[in-house]
Amino acid sequence: MHRLFILCALTLIGLPFLSAGVAAQEESEPLLSALLLETPVMLCGEPVPVEDPQVVERYEKEKLLSVGDRAQVILWLKRTGRYFPHIETVLKEKGLPDDIKYLAIVESALRVHAGSSKGAMGVWQLMPQTARKYGLTVNSRFDERRNFYRSTEAALDYLKALYERFGSWSLSLAAYNMGEEGLEAQILEQGTSDYYRLYLPLETQRFVFRLLAIKHIVEAPEKYGFHLSANDYYPPEIFSVVTVQAMGELPVRLVAKAAQTDFKTIKDLNPELRGYYLAAGTRRFHVPENGKAGFNDRLARLIEADKKVYDQRIYMVRKGDSLSGIAEKFDVPLAALLIWNRIGLRDVIHPGQHLVISPPTDVSRPASGGADAEEKE
């Protein structure tokens, strides 16, 4: 009786019903095929010792876990269309193995804003000190670890240096995950330089096997039940490059208007930008293709126009004022007041201080209230 009720319920909600045996068989087919190994197994041109049962077991674990998370694999596959062409080009230019591209999936699932609790950031999950060592800017205004193109150059230079140090790609990848000195200490203590025989932190012991599993899935997705057409893959980014010379702090909104686009598009094309203002200096930025022609002339006019109305937007703080009180007095969101003045909610204001108190004259806003516009980094 209970089983009949379940069958009726499934029919009523429009779900096709399969017997437990049929459902289990169909679900298990891609998982079973994931276990098949065609020898020899190679990674970065180096053989993987699959004659060792422990190596096979470690590989199978990562393969099954990856194939089992089907939604995540579909996103991996779709994102490869956007990011892999550029990675492949840089790998070829630097003379590095093509298999290294799968490291970007292992590290971040190809997400430019991916971050870790240890402080790693970006597609390649670079730590701040490593990023700076290889030429990236990491500070409160810019974090080039989030710039896919700049960080790819840095990460691959780092990997090249690791290979020169360790002489094998399995060890180089392990060092990328756990650090060079930590790996060298384990090699000295354990008396072996064979990655597959080293006892390392558990994450590092899985690291190379996860990359190998992802490689096999991405190379032949149909084998594991993923059937995507060419149109399903996300296309590479298309943009033009402009040079911005900022004499002082420059609102990102003016850069967006000069590029004939919106704030979000500029932030999406330049994920290394933090906050709402550019620091003084000269930088190269990505803008939509149609925004490059005449960009510098438009930006110069916008900066000049902004300067002319700046004084009209200023309020001098008086004794007894508070940020929330000023925001309420002028009917502007407190979050907007913080953005315009580059201050935090806990900052102390004092009499005589000048605050920008009204929105830009070319931006309309709701009559009152407004959503919290504070950017989440």
UniProtKB/TrEMBL annotation:
Domain of life: Bacteria
Keyword Signal: yes
Domain named LysM: residues: 313-357
Region described as Disordered: 356-377
SMART domains: LysM
Signal peptide start and end residues: 1-24
Keywords assigned: Signal
InterPro entries, per database record: LysM, LysM_dom_sf, Lysozyme-like_dom_sf, Transglycosylase_SLT_dom_1
SUPFAM superfamilies: LysM domain (SSF54106), Lysozyme-like (SSF53955)
Family from the record: Belongs to the transglycosylase Slt family.
Protein name: Lytic transglycosylase
